Structures are given as C-alpha cells and as structure tokens.
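Weekly structure sync, notes
Attendees: PL (lead), two postdocs, one rotation student
Agenda item 3: pending single-chain targets
PL asked that the sequence for the first pending target be pasted directly into the notes so everyone works from the same version. It is reproduced below exactly as submitted, 169 residues in total.
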Amino acid sequence: METNAMVGTLLGMSGPVFAALGAALAVILSGFGSARGVGIAGEAASGVVVEDPDKFGNTLILTLLPGTQGIYGFLIGFLVLFFTGMMPGGTMIDISLEMGLKIFAACMPVALVGWVSGIAQGRVSAAGMNIVAKHPDHTSKGMLYAAMVETYAILSFLASLLMVLGILM
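Predicted structure, written out during the meeting:
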C-alpha cells in the first residue's frame, strides 16, 4: 500500500517536472543555437572589420541575426513558468502528468528548431560577411539570406506559442 501511494505521489509530481523540463529545454537549446550562431557570425565579422573598420555597422546586423532564436526560446520558457505559477511569488496550478507532457511537447518546436536554425543562421550570416567585405552596398542581400533561415525560427516560435497558450489558457 505504501509503495502505491509513493508511485501515485511521484506521478502527480511528474506533470510540473515535465512542464519545467520543456521550459528549460526551450531556453537552453535555442540559447545554445543562438550563442553558437552569433559566435560563428562574429568570427567572420571580425575578419571583415580588421580589414575595414568602417564596415562594423554592416557586420553587426548580420552578427546579431542568429541571436533571435534564444529570445524566442526564452519567451516560451517564461510563458510556461509564468502561467503555471512556477515563478517566484506565483500560484502553482495543478499540472497533471498529461498536461505536463503536453507542455513539454509544446516547447519542443522552439527548442529544437531554435537550436538548429541559430547555428544555420550563423553560418549564412558568416557567408554574408563576404558580401559585406567585397560589395558593402549589397549588404542587404546577405541579410535577406539570413532572414530566410529566420522564417523557420519564427514559425517554430509561433507553433510553440500557440500550443502553450492553448494548453494553459
């Protein structure tokens, strides 16, 4: 009898654990992708700026673009923690195992696509630095290539956002 009560208690606690894990992975994985992408682009930008410091502004825009995935993941993580009451001072809602798993699944688009697209966008931005170096008047073309990758980060953010709000509202 005591074992059944303990298993029931653990299953009851699993909902909040899965919800928190989803929020954490949304922040961590998208943040990792952004950090890596910004690093890749920043390395390429440094090479361009060493040759011509006046191109700093153009390279800065391309370097910042891969950082948005981390912002999207952070927003999803924040919303999950806020609406579940897991933030300090919040009132914790009752999160069943099923709801916790749904929240976890809802966080995965922004977590996984943010991770992969942040790195991919960093590579595209780094390639765009060649345009800045050789034809600075065509910088917008490099930004457009990087923005194409951003489209999928935005779509994954919207998917996670709609699912999280659908579950918690």
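Discussion points:
- The chain has one domain: 2-168.
- The helical segments are 2-51, 56-64, 68-84, 97-134, 139-168.
Action: rotation student to compare against the earlier draft before next sync.
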